[in-house]
Sequence to fold (322 residues):
Amino acid sequence: MIKAEHLKKTYTVKVGKGLKRKNQQIEAVKDISMQIDKGKIIGLLGINGAGKTTTIKMLTTLLSPTSGTYVMDDIDAIKYPTEIKKRINMIAGGERMIYWRLTAYENLWYYGQIYNVPNHILKKRIDELLELVGLEQKKNVPVETFSKGMKQRLQIARGLINNPEYLFLDEPTIGLDAIVSKELRNHIKHLAINENKGILLTSHYMSEIEELCDYIYILSEGMLIKQGTTKELAADTFNRKEYVLKLYAYTNDITKNIENRLRAFDSSVTLLENSEGINISSNKNISLELSKTCSEEGVFIKEMYEKEPRLEDTIMQIAKEA
Ligand SMILES: Nc1ncnc2c1ncn2[C@@H]1O[C@H](COP(=O)(O)OP(=O)(O)OP(=O)(O)O)[C@@H](O)[C@H]1O
Ligand SMILES: [Mg+2]
Fold:
């Protein structure tokens, strides 16, 4: 388990010219605590400049925090960064970190050497990884002839070359087409569920975070402003519940009656008719009342469900309130 508490990072930059030149402190991360469990995918969200990259750099030990604690599987990560480096890897979107003139095999061999993977293990691992990402046929082909998706798949293989326990994914699907990014999301899920990797993911695609993440941290100006599952974040953000009710042969009269009955139960109820059926919003959980009312009114329900807000709606709402 990764446990980081009260991480803070202040950059010192020089501003001004000549004699007026002085140091200025930038508090990129003010106070961030987070946990990453093995087998889980954790999302890190925040607008540009919120502190995501600085946080990832501290968690990957590229930067040491100004203050705070960081422990990975009982190892003090700030004291022993080299121990941490063996256990982690990072996959960033785009086509960085891959050598185009080299073949897929040569690239992985090179990175395996950097991580000191013993040669006999490395040989076997490269073959397994190329198979995992579906590039076994391209083993000896120079990367410059690869499509974007193939390069990205090679990035995944590269990120797994040291068999890391934790993976940091910085916008891994950026610039990929729908099919390749779907494939990549499936790989990411596979790594968490079947290979028990702990994964931290940043992405500007809300649907991707929604699909993949077990838990989400939202950053703003170097602080954590919200955290939770998609469901918890929605419940925390919206105080009204939205229902969709579709009836067989509904009329204005029926709608009025339903509205009156529900209003007696919760004075905040509002009904909105549309082509889909009736949208109902309420302060309370009225699902039981709703089905009771319909049955007492003698109308048959075709479909009834509580509308789950999408992560995107929740984030927009949180941004409005901030
Ligand atoms: N090396 C640095 N020196 C000085 N200030 C920096 C440095 N790196 C980042 N910052 C500042 O720290 C703050 C947080 O930046 P960071 O890159 O962590 O944000 P981010 O959430 O990753 O943003 P983005 O979505 O744009 O990638 C910003 O105000 C940025 O200008
Ligand atoms: Mg960034």
Observations:
- The first helix runs from residue 52 to 59.
- The chain has two domains: 2-228, 239-321.
- Residues 247 and 299 are 7 Å apart (CA to CA).
